[in-house]
Design brief:
The structure is a single chain. The chain has 249 residues and is mainly β. Helix content is 13%, strand content 49%. The chain has 2 helices and 17 strands. Strands 1-2-3-4 form a 4-stranded antiparallel beta sheet, with no helix packed on it. It has a 4-stranded antiparallel beta sheet with strand order 5-6-7-8, with no helix packed on it. This is Spore coat protein.
């Protein structure tokens, strides 16, 4: 192959590659998931709040990028990145009790655990503050002998026992127990929030209620749900109440 012919071939290849990359980038269009107009700065003027995402080409239901875009009344644009996920939504609620609504965004991860990721932002006086939602409740969990389990809430120190004899055959088949005794120490599956939503606290104040699902040896092996109620006070989230239930509300 002559040098001129080789160089021409290389040039054509590079041009083709650039065209392919450009075409891929062109397909990665940003989509608007939802939009609201409201005053979230406290100046009585309306901002435009948009929830946007960039879907994967091969899986349009899953968004590889998700972000909040705010077109503020001062002419500036603010962008708050979120995490990737299957679905996303947002609502405007005053959770830090400063008289101005905050942006609470939720992203569903799309996994079998049903986990949601939440993000909370304030733009009062055009100053961005990441309020950060409360961490999930910390707890110790384990299976115990005689087909039972227990969880202990670290914050309160309270322990909750569970009788799982109705799953005896299932656990024996999996080798978790032998003649009622646990074969080896085994923790439960403590999931992060499957739900984190605003809740009335009284006196016109709002807080957050989180729900965590506790499972046995698989996500389908649900043992209980832990509900936690939180209030934002003095610049941080305070745990008000914890309830442990066998069924989710």
């Amino acid at each position: 192959m002559k040098k001129e012919t080789f160089l021409a071939f290389v040039g054509f290849f590079l041009l083709s590659l650039t065209t392919v990359v450009y075409a891929v980038e062109e397909k990665a269009k940003t989509v608007t998931i939802s939009e609201q107009k409201a005053d979230i700065t406290g100046d009585t003027e309306l901002e435009t709040i948009l929830l946007k995402g960039v879907p994967y080409q091969e899986e349009e239901d899953f968004l590889k990028e998700i972000f909040i875009e705010i077109k503020a009344s001062n002419g500036k644009k603010y962008t708050f990145p979120l995490e990737s996920g299957a679905k996303a939504s947002f609502q405007l609620v005053d959770l830090n009790h400063d008289g101005v609504r905050d942006v609470l965004a939720t992203v569903q991860t799309g996994g079998s655990g049903g986990i949601v990721l939440s993000f909370l932002h304030s733009l009062k006086n055009f100053v961005h503050t990441d309020l950060t939602v409360p961490d999930p409740v910390e707890m110790e969990s384990r299976f115990v002998n005689d087909y039972k389990a227990e969880i202990k809430i670290k914050e309160t120190g309270k322990t909750y026992p569970f009788d799982l004899k109705d799953r005896k055959l299932y656990y024996k088949k999996l080798g978790l127990y032998y003649k009622g005794k646990l074969n080896e120490p085994t923790e439960l599956m403590v999931n992060s929030y499957s739900s984190l939503k605003p809740v009335e606290l009284g006196e016109g104040k709002l807080g957050l209620k989180g729900v965590q699902r506790i499972a046995g040896i698989a996500n389908a092996d649900t043992i209980c749900f832990v509900e936690s109620t939180w209030r934002y006070l003095n610049g941080k989230w305070n745990l008000l109440e914890v309830k442990v239930k066998k069924e989710a509300n």
